[in-house]
Amino acid sequence: MNGKRAALFLSLTATLYGGPYPPAAGQEGSGAIALGDERIVSWATMVESFHPDESVSEAWLDSEQALGPAEGNSFGVCSLGPGGTLTVSFGQVIPNRLGPELAVFENSFSDLFLELSFVEVSSDGVNFVRFPNRSLTPSAVGSFGAIDTTDITGFAGKYRQGFGTPFDFSDLPDSPLLDADGIRFVRLVDVVGGQSTDSSGAVVYDPYPTSGSAGFDCDGIALLAPVQVPIAESQWSQGEFRLSWASEAGKRYAIESTESLERESWTQLEILSAEGEELAFSFPTTGTAKQFFRVVSE
């Protein structure tokens, strides 16, 4: 590589990977959720509504393709088209737990060709609250243009096929119209490049115009659960329960309890942030009911 070509390569690299947000799947610090991630416990089961743009070809209008496990390829998706919407549910209330609760999968064939959508949630199916989002892409992106993953956050479609974008209910703005512990519906709203705006009011750019499988292509929406952490030691002593576990500095852990393992209904007691290699937690017990405890991590 001669000097001019090397300089051009470095310039392009700086342009494509210069933002403050997590990078593409497979890179250090990425937030991408792989299809085989152990946190995935289920997938969307029902389409509540689907309103695609008229520019989408008939071959990409099967909304059922958004249900069940993502396929991680360029097919088996439903396309929203410019400004189109898709609302799904999981047949259950989605609890607000430690770490992300959702992962949305798109079918991009690369880390740079990224068709985006806003993500909104609702507890009643009528009032929806949008996840905060930000786009630093400086100018218009053509039909097959590139977007730097480190320039965008809070949008579905940030990662290539086979990797989902995580969404954490804790990031949602407070709203009297939303019960954050009783969310039942998830809605995707396609970003129209050059016309939509982010949470700050800035214009969002993504590939536009597109045709055929136009706009955001939904491959699946996964429900996530925290990862259970092995307990190193547990001990009952004079009405108090103490447990300890190996931890990773900078990581958060939640202590949960239940009175019935059969129902799998866990109550979050406390969230701790690790500063060293071991954490411990003590909890007073009344002795009136048998309790089970566990530790989960992000």
Structural key phrases:
298 residues, mainly beta, five-stranded antiparallel sheet, 21 strands, disordered N terminus
Structure, described:
With 298 residues, the chain is mostly beta strands. Helices cover 5% and strands 34% of the residues. It has one helix at 3-16, and strands spanning 33-34, 40-43, 46-51, 78-79, 85-94, 102-105, 117-122, 129-130, 134-135, 152-153, 163-167, 183-190, 217-218, 220-224, 227-229, 233-237, 240-246, 252-258, 267-273, 278-284, 292-297. The strands form six sheets. Strands 1-11-6-14-2 form a five-stranded antiparallel β-sheet, with no helix packed on it. A five-stranded antiparallel β-sheet has the order 3-5-12-7-8, with no helix packed on it. The radius of gyration is 21 Å and the shape is elongated. It starts with a helix and ends with a strand.
Strand order of the largest sheet: 1-11-6-14-2
Number of strands: 21
Roughly how many Å apart are the termini? 43 Å
Report the uncertain regions: 1-15
Compute the average pLDDT. 91
Largest sheet: 5 strands, antiparallel
Shape descriptor reads elongated
Q: In percent terms, what proportion of residues is strand?
A: 25-35%
User: Helix content range of the residues, please?
Assistant: under 10%
| Radius of gyration of CA atoms, rounded to a whole number | 21 Å
What is the H/E order? HEEEEEEEEEEEEEEEEEEEEE
Number of helices: 1
Secondary-structure content class: mainly beta
